[in-house]
Protein backbone atom coordinates (compact mmCIF):
# COMPACT_ATOMS: atom_id res chain seq x y z
CA UNK A 1 0.00 0.00 0.00
CA UNK A 2 1.36 3.43 -0.94
CA UNK A 3 1.66 6.08 1.73
CA UNK A 4 -1.07 8.27 0.17
CA UNK A 5 -3.42 5.43 -0.79
CA UNK A 6 -7.02 6.63 -0.75
CA UNK A 7 -6.14 10.27 -0.19
CA UNK A 8 -7.68 12.95 -2.37
CA UNK A 9 -5.58 15.82 -3.72
CA UNK A 10 -6.26 18.98 -5.69
CA UNK A 11 -3.34 20.66 -7.44
CA UNK A 12 -3.96 24.04 -9.06
CA UNK A 13 -1.96 24.82 -12.16
CA UNK A 14 -1.25 21.15 -12.71
CA UNK A 15 -1.40 20.77 -16.49
CA UNK A 16 2.29 21.62 -16.93
CA UNK A 17 5.52 22.28 -15.12
CA UNK A 18 5.93 21.95 -11.38
CA UNK A 19 2.21 21.47 -10.79
CA UNK A 20 2.11 18.57 -13.19
CA UNK A 21 5.12 16.97 -11.51
CA UNK A 22 3.45 17.35 -8.11
CA UNK A 23 0.19 15.83 -9.37
CA UNK A 24 2.02 12.89 -10.93
CA UNK A 25 4.08 12.26 -7.78
CA UNK A 26 0.91 12.34 -5.64
CA UNK A 27 -0.70 9.83 -8.01
CA UNK A 28 2.37 7.59 -7.92
CA UNK A 29 2.14 7.60 -4.13
CA UNK A 30 -1.51 6.51 -4.23
CA UNK A 31 -3.56 9.71 -4.17
CA UNK A 32 -6.45 10.52 -6.48
CA UNK A 33 -5.98 13.93 -8.09
CA UNK A 34 -7.97 16.89 -9.39
CA UNK A 35 -5.97 18.38 -12.28
CA UNK A 36 -6.56 22.11 -12.81
CA UNK A 37 -5.73 24.00 -15.96
CA UNK A 38 -6.48 27.45 -17.28
CA UNK A 39 -5.55 27.22 -20.97
CA UNK A 40 -4.37 23.95 -22.46
CA UNK A 41 -6.82 21.08 -22.18
CA UNK A 42 -4.41 18.93 -24.21
CA UNK A 43 -1.66 19.44 -21.61
CA UNK A 44 -4.13 18.73 -18.81
CA UNK A 45 -5.27 15.52 -20.50
CA UNK A 46 -1.64 14.39 -20.83
CA UNK A 47 -1.10 15.05 -17.12
CA UNK A 48 -4.31 13.18 -16.32
CA UNK A 49 -3.27 10.21 -18.46
CA UNK A 50 0.06 10.03 -16.62
CA UNK A 51 -1.73 10.11 -13.26
CA UNK A 52 -4.20 7.44 -14.39
CA UNK A 53 -1.30 5.25 -15.53
CA UNK A 54 -0.05 5.44 -11.95
CA UNK A 55 -3.42 4.12 -10.76
CA UNK A 56 -5.12 7.35 -9.72
CA UNK A 57 -8.67 8.45 -10.25
CA UNK A 58 -8.49 11.85 -11.95
CA UNK A 59 -10.82 14.78 -12.46
CA UNK A 60 -10.00 17.58 -14.91
CA UNK A 61 -11.27 21.10 -14.22
CA UNK A 62 -10.63 24.25 -16.22
CA UNK A 63 -10.75 27.17 -13.80
CA UNK A 64 -9.09 30.48 -13.00
CA UNK A 65 -8.13 30.54 -9.31
CA UNK A 66 -8.47 34.32 -9.24
CA UNK A 67 -12.22 33.80 -9.72
CA UNK A 68 -14.21 32.63 -6.67
CA UNK A 69 -16.53 30.66 -8.96
CA UNK A 70 -13.52 28.87 -10.45
CA UNK A 71 -12.31 27.91 -6.98
CA UNK A 72 -15.77 26.67 -6.05
CA UNK A 73 -15.85 24.55 -9.23
CA UNK A 74 -12.51 22.99 -8.32
CA UNK A 75 -13.71 22.29 -4.78
CA UNK A 76 -16.96 20.81 -6.12
CA UNK A 77 -14.99 18.35 -8.26
CA UNK A 78 -13.04 17.19 -5.20
CA UNK A 79 -16.27 17.18 -3.22
CA UNK A 80 -17.58 14.39 -5.44
CA UNK A 81 -15.07 12.20 -3.58
CA UNK A 82 -16.52 13.28 -0.22
CA UNK A 83 -13.51 15.20 1.01
CA UNK A 84 -10.07 16.55 0.27
CA UNK A 85 -6.85 15.59 2.05
CA UNK A 86 -4.29 17.66 0.15
CA UNK A 87 -4.56 21.10 -1.45
CA UNK A 88 -1.58 22.33 -3.45
CA UNK A 89 -1.89 25.99 -4.46
CA UNK A 90 0.51 25.95 -7.38
CA UNK A 91 -1.18 28.04 -10.10
CA UNK A 92 0.83 31.11 -10.93
CA UNK A 93 1.40 33.64 -13.68
CA UNK A 94 3.84 36.40 -14.47
CA UNK A 95 4.09 39.42 -16.70
CA UNK A 96 7.60 39.98 -18.04
CA UNK A 97 9.39 43.22 -17.17
CA UNK A 98 12.93 42.20 -16.29
CA UNK A 99 14.25 45.67 -15.48
CA UNK A 100 13.00 45.98 -11.91
CA UNK A 101 14.24 49.57 -11.78
CA UNK A 102 11.85 50.55 -14.57
CA UNK A 103 8.55 50.86 -12.74
CA UNK A 104 6.84 51.97 -15.95
CA UNK A 105 7.64 48.63 -17.60
CA UNK A 106 4.65 47.02 -15.89
CA UNK A 107 1.12 48.41 -15.86
CA UNK A 108 -1.11 48.39 -12.80
CA UNK A 109 -3.43 45.98 -14.62
CA UNK A 110 -0.55 43.56 -15.23
CA UNK A 111 0.58 43.87 -11.61
CA UNK A 112 -2.94 43.15 -10.35
CA UNK A 113 -3.40 40.18 -12.71
CA UNK A 114 -0.28 38.56 -11.28
CA UNK A 115 -1.22 39.36 -7.69
CA UNK A 116 -4.78 38.08 -8.07
CA UNK A 117 -3.68 34.68 -9.39
CA UNK A 118 -0.56 34.24 -7.25
CA UNK A 119 -1.79 35.64 -3.91
CA UNK A 120 -5.56 36.04 -3.90
CA UNK A 121 -6.03 32.73 -5.74
CA UNK A 122 -4.55 30.58 -2.96
CA UNK A 123 -6.72 32.41 -0.41
CA UNK A 124 -9.87 31.87 -2.47
CA UNK A 125 -8.93 28.25 -3.09
CA UNK A 126 -8.40 27.60 0.61
CA UNK A 127 -11.71 29.29 1.37
CA UNK A 128 -13.49 27.02 -1.13
CA UNK A 129 -11.67 23.86 -0.03
CA UNK A 130 -11.77 24.32 3.75
CA UNK A 131 -15.06 22.43 4.27
CA UNK A 132 -13.68 19.49 2.27
CA UNK A 133 -10.37 19.48 4.14
CA UNK A 134 -12.28 19.52 7.43
CA UNK A 135 -14.65 16.75 6.28
CA UNK A 136 -11.76 14.50 5.26
CA UNK A 137 -10.04 15.06 8.60
CA UNK A 138 -13.22 14.33 10.55
CA UNK A 139 -13.95 11.20 8.51
CA UNK A 140 -10.46 9.71 8.73
CA UNK A 141 -8.75 11.33 11.70
CA UNK A 142 -5.79 12.07 9.42
CA UNK A 143 -4.35 15.53 9.08
CA UNK A 144 -5.06 17.52 5.96
CA UNK A 145 -2.31 19.44 4.18
CA UNK A 146 -2.21 22.76 2.34
CA UNK A 147 0.90 23.62 0.35
CA UNK A 148 1.53 26.99 -1.29
CA UNK A 149 4.14 27.16 -4.05
CA UNK A 150 6.37 30.20 -3.70
CA UNK A 151 9.72 31.02 -5.29
CA UNK A 152 13.19 32.25 -4.47
CA UNK A 153 12.01 35.38 -6.32
CA UNK A 154 9.93 36.20 -3.27
CA UNK A 155 13.01 36.22 -1.06
CA UNK A 156 15.61 37.70 -3.41
CA UNK A 157 13.40 40.07 -5.42
CA UNK A 158 14.48 38.45 -8.67
CA UNK A 159 12.50 36.95 -11.49
CA UNK A 160 10.44 38.05 -14.42
CA UNK A 161 8.93 41.16 -12.84
CA UNK A 162 8.37 43.19 -9.68
CA UNK A 163 4.81 41.85 -9.58
CA UNK A 164 6.00 38.24 -9.62
CA UNK A 165 8.59 38.84 -6.90
CA UNK A 166 6.06 40.69 -4.73
CA UNK A 167 3.43 37.98 -5.19
CA UNK A 168 5.79 35.16 -4.30
CA UNK A 169 7.06 37.11 -1.30
CA UNK A 170 3.48 37.51 -0.12
CA UNK A 171 3.01 33.74 -0.04
TrEMBL record:
<dbReference type="InterPro" id="IPR036291">
    <property type="entry name" value="NAD(P)-bd_dom_sf"/>
</dbReference>
<keyword id="KW-0560">Oxidoreductase</keyword>
<dbReference type="InterPro" id="IPR002347">
    <property type="entry name" value="SDR_fam"/>
</dbReference>
<dbReference type="Pfam" id="PF00106">
    <property type="entry name" value="adh_short"/>
</dbReference>
<dbReference type="InterPro" id="IPR052178">
    <property type="entry name" value="Sec_Metab_Biosynth_SDR"/>
</dbReference>
<comment type="similarity">
    <text>Belongs to the short-chain dehydrogenases/reductases (SDR) family.</text>
</comment>
<protein>
    <submittedName>
        <fullName>3-oxoacyl-[acyl-carrier protein] reductase</fullName>
    </submittedName>
</protein>
<keyword id="KW-0521">NADP</keyword>
<dbReference type="GO" id="GO:0016491">
    <property type="term" value="F:oxidoreductase activity"/>
</dbReference>
Amino acid sequence: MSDLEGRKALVTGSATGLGRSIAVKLAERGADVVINYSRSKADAEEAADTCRAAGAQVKLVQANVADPDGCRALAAAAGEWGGLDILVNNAGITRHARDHADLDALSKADFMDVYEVNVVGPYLMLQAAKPLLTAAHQATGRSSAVLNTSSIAGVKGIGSSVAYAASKGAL
